[in-house]
Amino acid sequence: MVLAKAWMIANVYAAMFHARAKRHFGDEMPEGVAPYPTLAIGRHPEQVIGGRPLGYREAVTLPPDGTTEPRKSGLFFHGSFIPMDIDYDSKVDGVACVAEWGDCP
Hints:
By secondary structure, the protein is of the alpha+beta class. Helices cover about 30% and strands about 10% of the residues. A three-stranded antiparallel beta sheet has the order 1-2-3, with no helix packed on it. The radius of gyration is 26 Å and the shape is elongated.
C-alpha cells in the first residue's frame, strides 16, 4: 500500500514539474527534461487490497448524552465489516519466565 501511494505521489510531482518546465522553456525543452508522465492505469483498489483487513474499530468513549449506543467493534475490509466482541472478563493471568535472566522462581 505504501508503494502504491508513493507511486501516485511521484506521478503527481512528475506532471507538476514537467508542466512548470514547459511553461518556463516553452516548446524548446532542453535535453534531460523527463517527459510528461503517462496516465497511470493499473489494478483497481479491490484488486490491490483484496481481502486484507484495513483496520480495527473499537469504541474508546461513550456518547455524552447516553442515548445512543457506541459503534460496534470489529475488523473492517474494503467494502465489508466483521463485528467482533472481545470478552475482557475471561482473561487469564500468567507469568512469563526466561530461565537465562535468572528471574524465575
